[in-house]
Design a protein that fits this description.
Oligomer: single chain
Structural class: alpha/beta
Strand order of the largest sheet: 1-2-4-3-5-6-7-8
Strand content: 15-25%
Radius of gyration: 17 Å
Largest sheet: 8 strands, mixed
Distance between the termini: 30 Å
Helix content: 25-40%
Number of helices: 10
Order of helices and strands: EEEHHEHEHEHHHHEHEH
Number of strands: 8
């Protein structure tokens, strides 16, 4: 595989930002047809753009599944068009894939572009895909926040007991404004209820059964998606809110959307999850 790390200046953000691009070929793994699909992969609230590369096997999986992987930087934006900050939804659904397609000649049309993420990134992926139907063919959320209102309501507690940071309650103001109340268009339940089955992407959810932070949220959101008659796969297995689970979830998502690869040895023959 080939891995690129660099900076771009998106107009939607108004500042230089980091991006990683993993391509499934170089001198060792040359494939004349190039990557078959492109995946935008979003990090969580306590990570940065390097997380999926350092901990998540994104580079190895890009080669195994013959896809291009783009990992952008989102800080603590929840990947939304912030009240006081960059417009990350606009960035993810427009400028980022357009730039990457031009720079690396990778597929970014609606039939070949996917988006996924973990925790905060799971929310961001779902929000981008549901708010701008027709951009992504598939979306994956791994231990994703699916009820942003409930999550923000716990901001003070999360700031003291989780990796969100002590200033989390104030950082929410930058995302959604004073009061910390998300707009309707920022809430996944509202987007799902207003999405037609014809325009919906292929939706994949995964959450660990011991994930005390978001397991109930994910189960409730799955039930809502089913009531809305949207195409969704929801998988749960033993796991918590950590990289052990997210590595497995990414592999399962790619297997779901792309089929099982011929070279199925990225985990050294060990199946790192339980159904």
């Amino acid at each position: 595989m080939a891995l690129f790390q660099g900076n771009i200046f998106p107009k939607t953000l108004g500042f230089e930002t980091q991006v990683y691009v993993s391509l499934p070929y170089d001198g060792h793994r040359y494939q004349k047809d190039g990557p078959s699909r492109t995946l935008i992969l979003l990090h969580g609230i306590s990570d940065n753009a390097s997380g999926w590369i350092r901990h998540g096997l994104a580079d190895e999986l890009a080669a195994q599944y013959n896809i291009a992987v783009i990992v952008p930087e989102g800080h603590k934006s929840f990947w939304l068009d912030m009240k006081h900050g960059g417009h990350y939804t606009e960035y993810l659904t427009g400028e980022l894939p357009e730039l990457m397609e031009k720079m690396f000649h990778i597929p970014a049309d609606s039939d070949h572009l996917m988006i996924a993420g973990l925790s905060m990134g799971g929310f961001g992926a779902l929000h981008a895909a549901l708010s701008e139907p027709g951009v992504f063919a598939a979306v994956g959320s791994f231990s994703g926040v699916t009820d942003i209102s409930a999550f923000f309501h716990q901001a003070e507690i999360l700031g003291k007991t989780s990796d969100c940071g002590a200033n989390f309650i104030n950082e929410i103001v930058a995302v959604v404004g004073e009061g910390g109340i998300p707009r309707e268009k920022d809430q996944l339940c509202y987007l799902a209820k207003n999405l037609s089955t014809a325009e919906a992407p292929d939706i994949y959810l995964a959450c660990g059964t011991e994930d005390l932070l978001v397991y109930r949220q994910n189960t409730a959101f799955y039930d809502l998606l089913c009531k809305c008659h949207l195409d969704v796969v929801y998988e749960t297995w033993e796991g918590i809110h950590d990289w052990v689970f997210w590595r497995s979830a990414l592999n399962r998502f790619l297997e779901h959307v792309a089929g099982k690869p011929e070279d199925d040895d990225v985990f050294g023959g060990i199946i790192p999850y339980k159904k």
